[in-house]
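To: structure subgroup
Subject: Chain for Friday's discussion

All,

I'm putting the inputs and outputs inline so they're searchable in the archive.
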Amino acid sequence: MTSYDLVIVGAGPGGLTAGIYARSKMMKTLIIDAHKVGGQLVSLYPEKGIHNYPGYETIQARKLSDKLYAQAESMECDIHEGEKVQDIVSGDEEYIIKTDKGEYTTKSVIVAIGMGMFKPKRMGVPGEAELEGKGLTYILPVKEELVAKKVVMFGGGNSAIDMALVSSTVTHTTLVHRKDTFRADEATVVQLSKSRVKTIMSANLVSVNGDGKVESVTLKQGDEVFDVPADLVVINIGISSDLEDLKVWGIELTDSGLIKTDFDMRTNRPGIFACGDVVDYAGKYKQIITACGEAATAVNSAYKFVKKPYWA
């Protein structure tokens, strides 16, 4: 059974940042992810442009993930993809991490699973389930696959607008939002207003239409019901999370079902810390940079717990 100073559960931006900081402190580190490295960056919006990560005016989500991954590898983190942590068991002065592929011992743990086994939220309208994968998707395809298609997108947050902006560089794009104002950052909305994206506000999706493939969507705006031609429908209205593992792991949760930590990112289990979207506290602002900052704090706390330096 391989032994580590630190096992990080989750390989999104927070988990990868934690690995980088841990290795800078010479902690033997394993990063485990049930899916693939990158978290939401690659699973939900790989083509999205990230505009607010320091050091980059704009960077594609997939490329940001690749850079974090490469840095963690260069720091000699052990990284396991497609391996699900099933339990975190207390041992004799260590924890035993049980996965679907093996077991590891570790002196400390950082939970950085984001929104867990997340999946895109669905709109629940006629035609949505039937046409998924036949012109309806929840992830923006690569730009090369968008050329010459009529794209209709749904959503009002940063991700939805960023996807629409990417799409509009190569094809006709319409963005539909059920409210009369967007919830995205003001700078992103300004960028949208200067783009070629057509917006339809205060409109609800009635149905997705087509015989074997997407052909149009039916919208309702006030009392008016009308069709919009479409070859591709992209729905980006958020994600549903599955964090049931946290209850099995014996970690105390807040009323919102997320992990409760103190300012040092410590959980109720000594030696287990947390960072990123899975953590909740008053005033929490869910951003990539927030997860990375919390990761640095969590690693510092884990280092003090494991190494017990004289200055701690």
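Points worth raising on Friday:
The chain has a mean pLDDT of 94.
The first strand starts at residue 2 and ends at 4.

D.
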